[in-house]
Structure formats: structure tokens, C-alpha cells
Amino acid sequence: MKRFALFFVSACCVVLMGEAFADLVLQPGTIIHFGDGTTQSTAQVAGPQGPTGPQGPEGPQGPAGPGAPADHGGTGNTVSGTSAFVGGGADNRATTTYATVGGGWNNLVSGPRGTVGGGNLNTAGGESATVSGGGFSAANGAWSAVGGGAYNSASGDYSTISGGENNSANQPHATVSGGHYNAAYAAYATIGGGGPSDPANTNTTHNLVTDDYGTIAGGGGNQSGNDGGSTTDASYAVVGGGKNNTASDWAATVAGGEGNDATAMYSSVGGGFFNTAGFSRATVAGGTSNIADGEASTVAGGGSNTASGGGSFVGGGAGNYALGDFSTIGGGQGNTASGAYAIIPGGLSNQAAGDYSVAMGRRARVGNTHQGTFLFADSTDADFTSAVADEFAVRASGGVSLYTKADLTSGSALAAGSSAWSAVSAREMKENFEPVDPGEVLDRVVAMPIETWNYKSQQDTISHMGPMAEDFRSAFGVGDFENRITSIDADGVALAAIQGLNRKLEEKEARIAELEARLETLEKAFSTMKK
Description:
Shape: rod-shaped
Helix content: 10-25%
Strand content: 15-25%
Number of helices: 4
Number of strands: 49
């Protein structure tokens, strides 16, 4: 009778015929199940521990450990981070997960997923930080980057330094494009380039951004922000370039120049030298030593000008002061507009102290109680002062001419030294001549009411004499306006009436002469009769 067996070898079960296991070698611990239900085990029972045998020979050297994979280059490099890599160079270290050093010497990547492309003594210590090259630079902020250069430090998260030397971006999203000793010390700060205005004093004359979103495009010794401890109270300040300029309040701007300060919110200095915009929305466009310290005040240029009234303006010149609110000085020198809405177009040593007043020329002086007064002073080196409010006064020692037509064919003039106006009256300027009857004119003058009166706009103690405009026009039908009498027409009527009166006098004199002659004849005849 043939026998078969079922073997359990570990997890295996094998069925063999009886003849098949004659040559089968079984491992210890194998259990054999026979077809008739019986089992047999090859397990061995351990006996007592025997004595220790002699020491065997030393085994062969094992393979290299994971710190120096065979596919990495260079010499003296250390790769100790998971999936880290060093491509070449010497003495470089990639010590954290996914760290990468491309080459160079003595570079270190200690931040996860950081990268140093090359150079020497560079460090990528922030997560996903990058130093592309250069030397002695560090990108220690998360996702920070240094493009190259030397001694640059990008320690703010997402901060960037493109190149240059000794630049620092130590707040989130700060950027320095290049240059020397530039410091972006606020979030979203930007410095385009430049460096210290005094290379011998780099710590105090470098470009510096201290408040968030501040910008310095270049130049030297410039500052964006107030460096007051908080990075949020002078944000968005901008310095375009130049030397030793400061934009130290919210959204203040200095475009360039030297030694300029925009110290108030939204204030601006365009350029020039030692200018100050010291109040909200104040502007100095340029020039030297100008000050705009009134709200929304402006100095366009010139030197040593001041606009301190709210909304005041100085266009240029030197030593001018627009002190009144909304006062204006166009230019000149030594002018002062201290009244509200006062104006000095230009000139020398003028004063417009009254509100709404105007002074121009040389030494025109409007007093502070003379609002609305207009003064024009000629070149005479003497004060020409206002007398009352709302006055129009002119000092013109060369005379005054007023023309009402572009070709100068109509107008009036006040000659130098004169007190009376002369009107343009040449025959060549006139046309449509018609003779008048002087006697008729005289009769109309005689019939026309002549009265004394005062203007309602004047005090009743000030009297005038003359006809009413309505009566004058009704009598003679001349003049430009129904409610006015022009002096040239009044003069003409008076002259015609004089001629009419003269004619009457001549007629009377002729009649008298005739009568006298007749009387003389009668007297002679009477005398003869008596004899």
C-alpha cells in the first residue's frame, strides 16, 4: 500500500507520494501529516549550552555610509540631510532635508529645501531660502533670496537681495536690488541701490527704510520712514534718490536733490537743496532752503522762500513769505503776503497785509486793516502805503495811460506830474461830423435843471452840482449810457453853450453900438437946435 504525506513547511503545504520523499531533505521544525492520520515532527529540542568557542577572524570592510553618496562631487563636502545634495566644490555642507549646494567653498544649507548655488561662505538658513552666489552672504528668512554680491543678509521671510555689498533686508518681503550698505528694515521695504553718502561713515550715512512699504530708489544717505520704533506710522514713504534726503511720514515723497525733508503726511519735495515740506500735503518743487509748512502749501522754487499759510503759494524768487491762508507770491524778493487771499505778483519789498489785498512793484505797502486794497508802486525807492480799505491806488511818476481799444485810438491819459485826465480827441480819430447850433444848445442848457446833490454811496455831507444823466440825455441825446454823463460830452455841451451865449452877447453889443450911434446923432442934432 502506497503512503502519501502532507508537509507544512513554514506557510507551505505540500502533498507527495510515498516514493517521492525518499530523497527529500526536511528542515528542522517541519511537521509531516500522513494519510492514515498520524504526524511526525522534525523539530529538534535544544540541549544544554555548550562552552564558548574561540574568536573567529575579522570580517571584510563594509560599504560607505549614507553621509557621502557616490554620485556627489567635490572634496570634503558633507551631505547629512535626507535627499540633500552637493554637486561639487569643497567643504560645503547640506545638513537638512532637500538641501542643495551646487558648488563653491565652505557654503552651508541648513534650512529645509534651501539652496546655495556657489560662491564661498554663503548660508541658506531659512526654509526654501536661496543664495545664488557671491560670498559671505546669508538668506536666513523663509523663502528669502540673495542673488550674489558679498556680505548681504536677507533675514526676513520672502526678503530679497539681488546683489551688491553689505546690504540687509531683515523684514518680510523686503527687497534690496543692489548697492552698498543699504538696509531695508521694514516689511515690503524696497531699496533699488546706492550706498553711503560718506563712505568713511557707513553706519550713519547709508540708505535706510524703517517703515513698511517704504522705498528708496537710490542715492546715498537717504531715509524712508521716521525710525521711531514702529514700522507702521510712516508707511509708504518714498525717496527717489539724491543725497541725505528724508521722507519721514505716511506717503511722504522726496524725489531727489540733497538734504531735503518731507516730514508730514503726503508732503513732497521734488528736488533742490535743503528744502522742507513740513505740513500735510505741503510741496516744495525745488530750489534752495525753501519751506512749505502750511497745510497744502506750495513753494515752486527759488531760495529761502516760505509758504506757511494753509493753501499758500510762492512761485519763486528769494526771501518771500506767504503767511496768510491761500496767499500768493509769484516771485521777486523780500515780499510778504500775510493777509488771507492776499496777492503779490512780484517785485521788491512789497507787503500785502490786508485780506484780499494786492501789492506789486517796489515798496507797495497794504496795511493789515486795509482789506481789498490794490496798490501799484513804481520804481521809486520809497514806501507807497495804502490809505483805506478797498482802495485802488497807483504810484506812476511817469504818468498813467488807459486805452479802451487795441489800436490805441480811444482812451485817456494822466500825464507825468499832472492831476487831470486827457482823452484821445484828434480829428483823425473821429468821423460823422455834424455842426450844432450853439444858441439852441444854450437854450437847452438853460432849460435843463441844475441841482446840488450827493451820491447815496457817499456821506450826505459830500455835495456835487450838475444835471441828472436822464435830463442830459433827453436834452442832447449823446453819451454811451443812459444813466451816465461822459466828461467829453459835458465839455462839448458847455463849450457849445458858451458859443451860443457869446453869439447873444455879440448881438447885444451890436444893438447897443447901434443905439449908441443913434443916440449920439440925436444928441448932436439937439445941440444944434439949441444954438
